[in-house]
Specification:
alpha+beta; four-stranded antiparallel beta sheet; globular
């Protein structure tokens, strides 16, 4: 082997069987391009699927009427009492206790699962109330104490502000008040994605009404006056004060 240094800093190498003084082929330069950041998957509060599955289990639990043998046979056949649902409830509860979220696809799957049942309205209504109570308990103690110790008018405004914050951060709803009437709007609720006809919207309606009842003492009705499932631009809930009979 013969090697010779050139004036330009290159080294000429001659190997047996190869042409002498052949310059090595230059390696082209490449510009490193970083891979784009992955788009995060949309998520929803873990307390939503937790509440749905807990309501499912509650309605599938046999009534204690002394018929223990029949109750065991029924339990085997009911989805809400299956080991799979129990494991999912435990996983969602652990995540919800940390204030965590789960993939939106999981929430949609649970909503569709409930929607296929003949007692779906009962499950959605119970689940909405459960979700609202979970959300209300997630408020910090200072906020609850301040609202309790404030004058009545100030306390209501603080409580309503808290409802609006939870409606937005947990359920993706937009709360407003005009002349004492409370309105909550949702442009693309998961209930419509899961069930385009709008039957799952009962979950959100029950959740909002329970938030208002628990945090502000509201005792009226919350009407679902607009629904994307009926071709309207938003899902809209509006309060109606309870009538007082003398």
């Amino acid at each position: 082997m013969y090697a010779k240094g050139g004036n330009d800093g290159t080294i000429e190498v001659s190997l047996p069987g190869y042409l002498p003084h052949c310059r090595p082929t230059a390696i082209p330069s490449y510009r490193l391009i970083s891979a784009p950041n992955p788009v995060p998957k949309p998520t929803a509060a873990a307390l939503i699927p937790l509440s749905l599955l807990e309501a499912l289990r509650n309605l599938d639990t046999p009534v204690e009427d002394g018929m223990d043998e029949l109750a065991e046979e029924i339990a085997v056949r009911r989805l809400g009492l299956s080991p799979t649902v129990a494991a999912q409830i435990q996983r969602y509860r652990q995540t919800a206790e940390r204030g965590g979220t789960v993939d939106t696809d999981e929430v949609l799957s649970v909503l569709r699962l409930v929607g296929r049942r003949p007692d779906a309205p009962l499950v959605f209504a119970d689940a909405g109330r459960r979700a609202a109570r979970y959300a209300a308990r997630s408020r910090g103690r200072p906020s609850r104490t301040l609202a309790r110790l404030s004058p009545k008018g100030v306390a209501r405004r603080l409580a309503l502000r808290g409802v609006g914050r939870l409606a937005r951060t947990i359920f993706d709803g937009d709360l407003s008040e005009d002349g004492g009437t409370i309105e909550i709007r949702m442009t693309a609720p998961l209930s419509i994605v899961a069930a385009p006809a709008g039957e799952a919207c009962l979950f959100y309606g029950s959740a909002y009404q329970e938030l208002l009842r628990t945090m502000t003492g509201f005792e009226g009705a919350l009407l679902h006056e607009g629904c994307v499932g009926r071709g309207e631009p938003v899902c809209l809930w509006r309060t109606v004060e309870a009538e007082v009979y003398e």
